[in-house]
Task: inverse folding
């Protein structure tokens, strides 16, 4: 009936043939074949249109321009870890591998470091200049025979060697809600021969045009103390349908890594993440030594109002797991990021590293772990300042494509352990645990950050520079009082310059109205303490470019440092900013372009850094000078005293060489 109705409505498909007398004749009838082809083609076109409409690349920013969108985001990634990346992580001596690498390494991939995974952050300014937060991120292994909830917990104490004093970690807990367990990058095309549990259901996160991911498997293994390995089987796609047939995961308590072509990979669990943290007192300009897990940790900060030096990057990527990190393999950003940071950290007078969000584009902590495992203790002992970007909240880049496996900044705030404004408010907000310096009380909402913005707001001084960091995913009304507190602090402490640190350089992809860094920079200049004209500057990322972003009345005030492996229109960049306020009463900002689409200067910069023991001062001929301006706010007598040994004098607010 349908057959003749269709040909009646479409006369061009009619054939002057006798009516079919059997189903075989119906199926082989010429008009039937044409109809089948027509419907298959139409269905495929509809599927293609659906894919296009759901692809984040087609979700334009506020300007409605696709080019503008691409300057902020990238298409979805592979949905799995690249094989070349797995091989480099397992064998750091390998610097590059073919994408077709299929080597199976059955040795364990969890690296056991010989030193603690330390974080050093500046304490919130109201605590006092001589305070830092010292934290340690550990993994704890489950032991079924252990009576203490099955876990062997790390030590609650460490030693202040300078003062011969035992100190207790005030915060001493397992990670909560997100990033609760640590996993490796997996072994491709292998499985475990004796799984104790097989999970088959449709609760797998789907990524348009890509394989189903293993979020459900990782979550199941995380929540099962018996699980030490899980294997993910993505199933096979049946075109033109998008759905996958029979994806599943297998949980195992041990693994012999048996070759299995139907398995995407088998992942090993190192244990559960554990965070220890305490605020400690340090003396400026000396090596403050702490003994943590029998390892010496050296913390050094400059005197207040003295010069400081540091490195700033944003949007660093090296994997296509979740986003399209265009230059990850091509520019070897994994190895180069590690190598350069380790080299720079050898300078004892380099005080800080700053990362302004989208830190490695990581949903579940695996990518962050493999990079941090390779960083030196010298890097981890420097002051770390970081704020979250949109991909640290929703790995796809925005709330419109989020899902239950996103970290919503909760993994971020525990792993990087910043001392934020919530930590000074926690005694009143968290009566059951006055030492809790992070707020876990808010629920999760896939369409918003819904994580207390106080967890990401910080202000402090390093030397003669003041810093204010925040997240643009909250409204200004939520954090206005925090900005007032920060600006009042700056008024009291009188830094020579103030830097506003944030991620979003424009209002899009989860940034709330009026919360981009340029907008906030303009807004807080009306507040007491921040109304200092060109002396309040800013750094941001998000757009994957590195450039001077904004001029003030007399000099540069805004700097974009979002090019670190991702793509953008107008030329891809990979580099870092170097802030130096130690040189003859001047603030200088240099930009080191390690690589772009036409030139590779990485080796020249690295060789120079290594030649001079990490000191970038001797390598600035390889950089672009973004800012060179006179210092402000220094007391003249203090300035003369602090710089007497540097061969300079001070006269009428102008530094003059003694020669």
Result:
């Amino acid at each position: 009936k349908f057959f003749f109705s269709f040909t009646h409505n479409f006369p061009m498909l009619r054939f002057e043939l006798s009516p079919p007398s059997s189903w075989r004749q119906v199926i082989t009838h010429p008009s039937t074949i044409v109809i089948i082809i027509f419907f298959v083609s139409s269905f495929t076109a509809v599927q293609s249109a659906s894919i296009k409409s759901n692809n984040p690349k087609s979700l334009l920013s506020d300007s409605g321009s696709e080019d503008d969108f691409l300057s902020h985001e990238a298409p979805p990634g592979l949905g799995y870890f690249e094989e070349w990346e797995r091989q480099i992580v397992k064998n750091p001596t390998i610097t590059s591998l073919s994408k077709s690498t299929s080597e199976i390494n059955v040795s364990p991939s969890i690296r056991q470091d010989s030193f603690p995974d330390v974080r050093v952050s500046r304490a919130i300014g109201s605590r006092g200049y001589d305070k830092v937060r010292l934290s340690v991120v550990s993994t704890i292994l489950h032991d079924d025979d252990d009576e203490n909830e099955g876990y062997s917990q790390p030590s609650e104490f460490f030693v202040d060697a300078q003062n011969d004093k035992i100190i207790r970690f005030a915060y001493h807990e397992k990670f909560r809600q997100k990033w609760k367990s640590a996993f490796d990058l997996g072994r491709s095309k292998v499985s475990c021969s004796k799984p104790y549990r097989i999970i088959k259901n449709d609760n797998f996160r789907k990524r348009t045009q890509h394989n189903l991911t293993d979020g459900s498997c990782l979550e199941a293994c995380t929540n099962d103390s018996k699980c030490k390995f899980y294997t993910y089987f993505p199933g096979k796609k049946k075109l033109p349908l998008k759905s996958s047939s029979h994806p599943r995961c297998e949980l195992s308590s041990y693994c012999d890594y048996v070759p299995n072509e139907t398995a995407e990979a088998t992942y090993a669990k190192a244990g559960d993440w554990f965070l220890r943290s305490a605020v400690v007192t340090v003396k400026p300009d000396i090596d403050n030594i702490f003994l943590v897990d029998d390892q010496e940790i050296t913390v050094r900060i400059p005197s207040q109002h003295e010069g400081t030096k540091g490195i700033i990057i944003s949007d660093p990527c090296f994997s296509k797991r979740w986003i399209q990190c265009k230059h990850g393999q091509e520019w070897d950003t994994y190895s180069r990021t590690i190598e350069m940071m380790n080299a720079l950290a050898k300078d004892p007078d380099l005080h800080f590293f700053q990362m302004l969000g989208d830190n490695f584009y990581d949903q579940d902590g695996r990518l962050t772990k493999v990079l941090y495992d390779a960083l030196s203790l010298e890097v981890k002992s420097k002051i770390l300042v970081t704020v979250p970007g949109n991909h640290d909240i929703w790995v796809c880049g925005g709330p419109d494509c989020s899902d239950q496996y996103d970290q919503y900044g909760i993994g971020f705030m525990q792993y990087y352990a910043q001392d934020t404004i919530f930590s000074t408010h926690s005694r009143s907000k968290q009566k059951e645990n006055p030492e809790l310096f992070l707020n876990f009380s808010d629920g999760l909402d896939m369409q918003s950050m819904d994580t207390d913005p106080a967890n990401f707001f910080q202000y402090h001084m390093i030397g003669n520079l003041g810093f204010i960091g925040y997240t643009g995913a909250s409204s200004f009304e939520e954090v206005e009082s925090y900005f007032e507190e920060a600006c009042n602090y700056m008024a009291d402490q009188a830094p020579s310059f103030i830097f506003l640190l944030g991620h979003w350089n424009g209002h899009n992809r989860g940034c709330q109205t009026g919360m981009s860094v340029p907008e906030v920079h303009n807004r807080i200049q009306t507040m007491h303490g921040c109304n200092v004209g060109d002396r309040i500057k800013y750094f941001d990322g998000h757009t994957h470019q590195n450039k001077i972003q904004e001029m003030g009345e007399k000099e540069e005030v805004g700097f974009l440092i979002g090019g670190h492996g991702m793509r953008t229109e107008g030329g891809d960049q990979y580099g870092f900013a170097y802030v130096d306020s130690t040189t003859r009463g001047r603030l200088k900002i240099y930009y080191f372009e390690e690589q772009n689409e036409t030139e590779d200067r990485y080796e020249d910069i690295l060789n120079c850094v290594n030649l001079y023991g990490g000191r970038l001062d001797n390598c600035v001929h390889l950089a672009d000078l973004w800012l060179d301006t006179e210092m402000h706010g220094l007391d003249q007598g203090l300035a003369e005293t602090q710089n007497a040994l540097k061969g300079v004098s001070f006269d009428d607010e102008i530094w003059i060489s003694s020669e």
The first strand starts at residue 117 and ends at 122. The chain has 15 helices and 31 strands.
